[in-house]
Amino acid sequence: MLFNWLKKGAKKVTNHEGATAYALSPALELYTAVVTASLSDNFYEKGSERLERIRQLIGQNKPEFVLQLAIYTRQKMHLRSVPLVLLVEAAPLLSGDFYLSRAIGQVILRADEITELLAYYQFANQRKGVKKLNKLSKQIQKGLAKAFNRFDEYQFAKYDRQGAEIKLRDALFLVHPKAKNEAQQEIFNKIAAQTLATPYTWETELSALGQQTFANDQERRRAVCAKWEELIFSGKLGYMAMLRNLRNMLEANISAEAIGRVANTLAEPAAVAAAKQLPFRYLSAYRELLANEKTNREATQRLIEALEMAVRHTAANIQGFDANTRVLVAADVSGSMQTPISQKSSVMLYDIGLMLAMLLRNRCQNIETGIFGDTWKIVPMESKRILHNVQEFYRREGEVGYSTNGHLVIKDLRARNAIMDKVMIFTDCQLWNSTQDGSTLQEEWKQYKRIAPKAKLYLFDLAGHGNTPVDSLRDDVYLLAGWSDKIFEILNAIEQGQSALDKIKQISLEDEN
């Protein structure tokens, strides 16, 4: 989540499409690279290349900023792997600095992140063999020792994966945490002895069920149904577990009462806020339900309505818009945007752009929406159904072609003499002109400002390749980045003349709570 006024005289570079673009400052580039990183291959850049670029950018920034960015990325953007990379890579730059241990305390929010940080430390330092974790930074050791004090037995047991190369037992012996009381010392003893109580989770319960023998398949299906209902009514089934298993629950033919409990939980505002799910998680669940719609239509529709309500809650805090604010939202649906965000995901950058665009659509009263590729096309959409709108846009894939002619969005505004207050483009920022007529987004925006001097252009960077298609000499172009609905919090800050980089730098390294 980011905006920043681009510096005057930004260095010209060539983007991945061979078009002229403009380099970002080291801090801005690091931020865009981090909040759009899945550390897996994407259309233009291999995951290992992204990691190496992040490591190089860390060396170009102040280490304190890197720590603040790690905290911000974990707590605000809800990313898990990249903040750990930032902490480990910043360690050699902060020899003896207590800020590192305090930052670790603010980043480690799940028990398995203790071992994940050590795993990356081992990888980054190319450690192998018995002493793969020796000479651990004292401040990392101190920070991890304090992190051990944060979790209870259930949390440790839930994430103590015995198949992992580095286990909680290894971490315990390495960092020697000091128990805050006798009860916690007993938990530490159990970690050491590997006798933590088996946690009550959907994975462990269904796994245990799978070990049982049943007289026939019908009996097995009844047992699976009963187990899902037990999990649902126990109150111990987490929000993300519900979200990821909606199709499994329907296939288990759980009762209407159980469906109602799940739907109410998914749509409950406080539960949505506490779950901190990235918006595309709801889209993935929605698509799973659509695949099951013909089998159990009534239950499926009940859950779909709950998901729609849940994503509306995530859009509720979007500010900076009123009935008089004229907004244009344009989504890039080019070939490079149709790339999965990770090897294990079916979600594409295309989907994220559409999802964020429709969240914004839900909050605006005076808005036009459209898609661009070879051409630009305005596609009217209703405001209330966010997930439905994303899917409708998705079905129109191919209607505008697969190039990245983002300049056509502004060219159309000029041709219609349409005055907008905000023009918002969701893209990977690798724009070019496939017609080769010389027109660019930069030039079109310059011309548009003559008829709409108060208009602002927002580029939502969904890929973080380190450059932008527009070099602004005024404070009317903003760059935002990320996959979370938190990206919109900055829109209100823009109206107040604040900078997201400044907000990151305001994060305290003095207090880990």
Walkthrough of the structure:
The protein has three domains: 26-193, no CATH class; 214-275 and 277-315, no CATH class; 326-505, von Willebrand factor, type A domain (Rossmann fold, 3-Layer(aba) Sandwich). β1 (12-14) and β2 form a beta hairpin. The chain has helices at 26-35, 47-58, 63-75, 81-90, 98-107, 112-124, 138-147, 153-159, 168-175, 182-193, 202-210, 217-234, 239-244, 246-251, 256-267, 269-275, 279-290, 297-315, 349-363, 386-395, 407-416, 441-451, 489-495, 500-505; strands at 12-14, 20-23, 326-332, 366-372, 376-378, 422-427, 456-461, 467-468, 477-481. The protein starts with 11 loop residues before the first strand and ends in an 8-residue tail after the last helix. It contains 24 helices and nine strands. The protein is 49% helix and 8% strand. α19 (349-363) packs across α20 (386-395). The chain has 513 residues and is of the alpha/beta class. The strands form two sheets. It has a six-stranded mixed sheet, with helices on both faces. Strands 1-2-8 form a three-stranded antiparallel sheet, with no helix packed on it. The model is unreliable at 1-8 (pLDDT under 50).
